[in-house]
Amino acid sequence: MPTKPTIARIWRGRTRPDVADTYEAYIRAEGIPPLQKVALGVQLFREDREEETWFTTISYWPTIEAMTAFTKGAPTKVHHLDRDAELLIELPERIEIHRILVNDQNLR
C-alpha cells in the first residue's frame, strides 16, 4: 500500500454563526478522531461569514480501496454525525472524492 495519499475525501457543511463554536467543538470530538485513526491525514477548516459558518473536512487516503473500506463500501455517501441535523443549516448530500495530482506540502 502506498504511504503517500492519492485520494482526498472532502466534506462541507455550514452552521449559523451562533452555533459555530458548538459545532466546531462537536466535530473535533466526534467527527475527526475516527478519521485520525485510519486516514493518512485529516484537516478541518472553518470559514466564518456574516450569515453562516462553513466547515470543511479533508481526509487523505492511500488508495480508493482504503477509503472505501472505511466508508463500508459507500465512499460518496455522507455519514452524518448524531447532532448534524440539530447544528447544521442543512444536511450535506454529497462527499467529493478527488485524485491528488500534485502534493507539495513544503509549507513555510
Helical region count?
3
Shape: globular
CATH C-level:
Alpha Beta
Number of domains: 1
**Number of DSSP strand runs:** 4
CATH fold type: Alpha-Beta Plaits
Backbone structural class: alpha+beta
| Amino- and carboxy-terminal Cα gap | 29 Å
Helix content: 25-40%
Strand order of the largest sheet: 2-3-1-4
What's the rounded overall pLDDT mean? 91
The main pleated sheet reads as: 4 strands, antiparallel
Question: What's the Cα radius of gyration?
Answer: 14 Å
What are the secondary-structure elements, in order, as H or E?
EHEEHHE
Indicate the low-confidence ranges by residue numbers.
none
Can you put this structure into words, describing what you see?
The protein has one domain: 2-Layer Sandwich (Alpha-Beta Plaits), CATH 3.30.70.100. It is built from three helices and four strands; from the N terminus they run βαββααβ. β2 and β3 form a beta hairpin. This is Antibiotic biosynthesis monooxygenase.
Topology record:
Elements: E1 7-15, H1 20-38, E2 41-48, E3 53-61, H2 64-70, H3 84-87, E4 96-99
Antiparallel strand pairs: 1-3, 1-4, 2-3
Task: Give a concise summary.
This protein is of the alpha+beta class. It is built from three helices and four strands. It has helices at 20-38, 64-70, 84-87; strands at residues 7-15, 41-48, 53-61, 96-99.
Distinctive features:
108 residues, 3 helices, Dimeric_a/b-barrel, Antibiotic biosynthesis monooxygenase, single chain, globular
